[in-house]
Amino acid sequence: MQRQTLQQQTSGSAPESISPLDVESGGATDGNSKNHPSVWMATLTSVFTRLESLPTPKWLQSSATTTSSTGSQPPPLVTGLNRVLLGTQPACEVVTIGGIHPPRYLCYMISGSLCDIIQFFIDVALHFCFGIDDPSLCWALGFGGSIVFRHSSHRYLVFGDYVGGYWNSLKRMYAGYSIIIVLSTIFNIVMTRMAMLPHYVAWLITLLWTGIVNYFILKKLWSFGGTNSTNTNNAAS
pTM for this structure? Predict the structure, then answer.
């Protein structure tokens, strides 16, 4: 009798835990399902949900958000993070900080600055670890390698869903950036060989003007060849 009871206890399966992504989709998913969220997505969703529950400090509340908020409950500090992670719209369209939408170009500057740091570390690795002494070659390889990261970062922060899928969008971005890679490399050659500027002084000067030009190129490249779901939804509304 005790053995049967023990078998019943051990054979009973524990209730399956529901991740935050399961809550978003309306229920738990099977562990073998393709739609089952990955661990890092579930972790990010939990962190974002926690951030969106924080109230806006009084010093950050604008008069508009103060008058529009009902009752004594302050508006949330940040909203829309999970919509960016799980949806197709960029942060500049759905995220609010203290009730204010950040401008698109500000989001582009944040996204670009993060990827500039990645490009810098690629350049440093090429120069010091792989022994490439040519600053212009380091610039071209570092810039080319950082485009993969820029592509994903700009999708979530600036421009929204990929047009034509990830790989088509990435190929289109590399094709458009190829002109800037060539022009910026020539500019870097002039800075280092004619103006005799140090490696990373020329790197910084080259970075400053390419960042501004890249924004206007990306605005054309991102929607070239189709319309993403964000623009389609906006047009329909």
Answer: 0.71
